[in-house]
Amino acid sequence: MADSLSKPSYCNAVRCQLEMGESLHMALDNYDLLNLDWKPMRKRDSLILPLKSGLKDEQLRVLKGLSFEIHFTYQEFERAELSNNPHAQLRRTVSDWLTGKSNAAEIEPLVSQLPRKWERYGDMIILPERAFESDDWVKLLNRCTKSQLEALWRCITEALSGKRLARQRPIAKDMFRSSQTELLFGESGWVEFTDHGVQFGFDATQVMFSSGNNTERRRIGNIPMDGEVVVDAYAGVGYYTLHMAHRSQAMHVHAFEMNPHSIEGLQWAIKANHLENKITVHHGDNQLLLPNVYAQADRIHLGILPSSEHAWEHAIQCLKPSGGWLHIHMNVQEKDIESWCVETLEKLSTLAESHGRKWTIESQHLEKVKWFSPRVRHVVLDVHCQSRDT
Ligand SMILES: C[S@@+](CC[C@H](N)C(=O)[O-])C[C@H]1O[C@@H](n2cnc3c(N)ncnc32)[C@H](O)[C@@H]1O
Q: Which residue, 38, 125, 132, 346, has most beta carbons within 10 Å?
């Protein structure tokens, strides 16, 4: 048995040029298509990534929207190291739990539906939305007693080296983009962890934290902002505010946020990172409060999806008359990104002119943060505004 587990085996796979490997890996990971049982393989100048078995055409269709060339192949792969593979640990633990509760023929299909990825905030493991929600699992879980269920959640938590377990729920379509995470094992939803050297804390059952924006948090925190006054119009628990104040060394950050649960986390983190003198929290609707900082900022961060457009006019007015930077988040169809950049610069120029700002407005960088859905990218456009009078 152990021998057959360690043997190489054939599996469907997808190949791309090496330089696109990270993007392909991210796309497969986002759509849960990647087979973690096998080791990705490099062959000359290409990367070959193993696909999960039993994928349907509609699941593979998301790959057709990618902006670079890929090829489907059938390939022999080596097993991924068991010790580095918490999924294998999860399979073993859950198989043990299932023994005696299901007949032998049911166990493998149930185990094959176990989640392949999860998030971790401090000691809390957050399973994806659909984990344990298939018909087979729901049927089984409905037959279980309370203590059997608790034993299942406990053994999963331990297999994934956590202390608490939760399951993601769809992010609410309310103004706060509230989290609806459901706690499965453990008492409290409060999590604390460090992200690129910055401490975060919040109630994960109340507010969202998008781990998919990890690269963007790293990038923003690497931009030097010494001496700058910065406005973060959608601060949340401080995803960018804290990185700009701590790592980018902004002189002062004005953080606007309306969700009291997010503000609780933000206030906690301001203390934990000793940033009391560098961050002012403006509690309320930024549409009403941004005028309080008109003409004061060197940089405005506009981090909300699907669009931050309704804050652009305020953002223009928050910048100093000499100009500054805008970081504009947006969900854009991959095929429309170029035209969206052009349109955005035109709209900003019109808004600036209408407020008497004689600026040259240029795009300096476009960051593709993540795939939001099969053809839609979360992008950030860095825009520089420079007064023509200086
Ligand atoms: C999507 S979250 C921030 C997510 C974060 N950028 C990330 O990467 O994980 C956006 C935040 O903006 C806040 N927000 C939305 N509209 C607002 C408004 N008009 N005024 C102040 N805050 C607002 C929400 O409460 C939420 O905390």
A: 125
